Amino acid sequence: RQVQLSLLPEKLPRIPGYQIAAAIQTANEVGGDFYDVLQLGNHQYLFTIGDVSGKGSSAAFYMAQIISLLRFSQQFTVEPKEVVLRLNQYFATQIKDRQIFITAIVGILDTEKNTVQLVRAGHTLPIFIPGNVRKEIRELRCTGLGIGLTDNQQKYEESLQVVTVDLDAADTLLFYTDGVIEAARPAAGQSVTGMEVFGERRLKDILNTLRGEKAQNVLLTLTKELKIFYADHPWVDDH
């Protein structure tokens, strides 16, 4: 657990004009969720969030591999689509365990253009929270297969969609793993098999109260709400 957590950034870069916050909670001692933010130049930052299939030491092992490859990738390219293509080529051809795949988002924040360009590889959809209360909170629709699911690079490249988002003051982007919305606990008054999930609707309702809030406050509120939801029940997934 200590080795795995040491692979995550000890502290996030300070980004002029922006706020950024991130955290991880594993259901077991180790897990497969990851995130990273890397400064590329004076005004560009490479970021990622992802989830390795499965749990435990196997997921943690592949999480360590993908974090290392992502940090190494900037020597070859800083284009999100090219980064994801190279990752898929590696995991689809070098990893023999076909049960292993990775969902991820890889993107570039450009603080000069105030844009985010991103590629989504089978991951949960990012959520855009406008600072303008008259605009709706919405998911950013973008297609893309999970990393390692096919060794047909042409098919894989065709599945990937590059999305560019223009950011105004007080706009927020939320990236998260499926352990947030798939958090589950026994439903009140139900049999042992009856489960209640945290769900997308609950998440969006919470986010609607957090428009324009500081990134750290958004993170702390979501973390608090998940802890309240689970109460004394065991955590079922990393997030």
Summarize the structure.
The protein has helices at about 1-5, 55-75, 80-95, 155-160, 200-210, 215-230, and strands spanning about 35-40, 45-50, 100-110, 115-120, 125-130, 140, 160-165, 170-175, 185, 195.
Write structural notes for this entry:
- The strands form three sheets. Strands 1-2-3-4-7 form a five-stranded antiparallel beta sheet, covered by helices on one side. Strands 6-5-8 form a three-stranded antiparallel beta sheet, with no helix packed on it.
- The longest helix is centred in the N-terminal third of the chain and has 18 residues, at 56-73.
- The radius of gyration is 18 Å and the shape is globular.
- Helix content is 30%, strand content 21%.
- The protein is of the alpha+beta class.
- The chain contains six helices and ten strands; from the N terminus they run αββααββββαββββαα.
- The mean pLDDT is 90.
- A hairpin with an 8-residue loop joins strand 5 (127-129) and strand 6.
The secondary structure category is alpha+beta
Ranges where pLDDT stays below 50 over 5 or more residues in a row are none
The string of secondary-structure elements, in order, is HEEHHEEEEHEEEEHH
Q: Biggest β-sheet: count, sense, barrel?
A: 5 strands, antiparallel
How many alpha or pi helices?
6
